[in-house]
Amino acid sequence: MTAVTRREPRLRDGHRSGQRFNHASDARALCGGASFEVREASVFDLSPTEYGTFDVVYSWGVLHHAGAMERAIAAAERLVAPNGILCLALYAKTFLCPFWRFEKRAYTFSPRLRQRLIRTLYVALYRSRFMFTGQDFGAHVANYRNTRGMDFYHDVHDWLGGYPYESITPDEAHEMMRRHGYDVEREFVGSVVHRAVRIRLPRVRVSTPSTGAAG
């Protein structure tokens, strides 16, 4: 997990390692030139005693790769200040989740040559969708960084190898966060099969959770 912290206001921005900023200047541009620190650490090691608490804790497409998603969310919650906001994006649970879990595990533990072959097949299938719908695949790849913040082919590798892999339904997310003492402030739910469904759950802390994650 890569964290970017702006000193004013207090913000924390988390990305899984495949999406880390290539240069500090990239992060600085996104933060409007504000002063900040960049640190890479496990979410389970982010102690509020060491790092403090923040008005906004933001994790986009990270915690479902921690191997223990609810524990990871609880660990992130410890950094939320009273009445602060926790923003999460988590994979949606679909009927394809068992397939993707199998694929991601196989890809992650494959040698590089096999990974390259899997990527080539995936890109060919991805490209064919553009051909059948009359869309411009080349333009999509060229503009990908502007829309996703990373190179298309890097994102392919990132998606295929995103293991561990967990997912959650909106109802499960609501119940979990209620147990943790949060209310829904805003929510965006999508249903894209192979992408992270943009379940974006900013939540206002209404009580201190009685339990936290170990780590």
3D structure, described in words:
The model is unreliable at 1-23 and 192-215 (pLDDT under 50). Strands 1, 2, 3, 4, 5, 6, 7 and 8 form an 8-stranded mixed beta sheet that branches. By secondary structure, this protein is α+β, with helices and mostly antiparallel strands. Strand 4, helix 3 and strand 5 form a beta-alpha-beta unit. The chain has 9 helices and 8 strands.
What is the alpha-carbon Rg in Å?
Answer: 18 Å
> From N to C, what is the helix and strand string?
EEHEHEHEHHHHHHEEE
**Termini Cα gap:** 14 Å
Q: Based on CA inertia axes, which overall geometry fits?
A: globular
How many E-type strands? 8
**Average pLDDT taken over every residue:** 76
Q: Major sheet: size, sense and barrel closure?
A: 8 strands, mixed
**Percent in strands:** 15-25%
Number of helical segments?
A: 9
Q: Helices and strands: which structural class?
A: alpha+beta
* DSSP helix fraction: 25-40%
Spans where pLDDT lies below 50 across 5 or more residues? 1-23, 192-215
What are the defining features of this structure?
about 220 residues, alpha+beta, 8-stranded mixed sheet, disordered N terminus
Task: Give the gist of this structure.
The protein has helices at 24-30, 48-51, 69-77, 97-108, 112-133, 137-142, 144-148, 152-160, 170-179; strands at 2-6, 11-15, 36-40, 54-60, 80-90, 182-184, 199-200, 203-205. It is of the alpha+beta class and 215 residues long.
Summarize the helices and strands and which ones pair or pack.
Elements: E1 2-6, E2 11-15, H1 24-30, E3 36-40, H2 48-51, E4 54-60, H3 69-77, E5 80-90, H4 97-108, H5 112-133, H6 137-142, H7 144-148, H8 152-160, H9 170-179, E6 182-184, E7 199-200, E8 203-205
Parallel strand pairs: 2-4, 4-5
Antiparallel strand pairs: 1-2, 1-3, 5-7, 5-8, 6-8
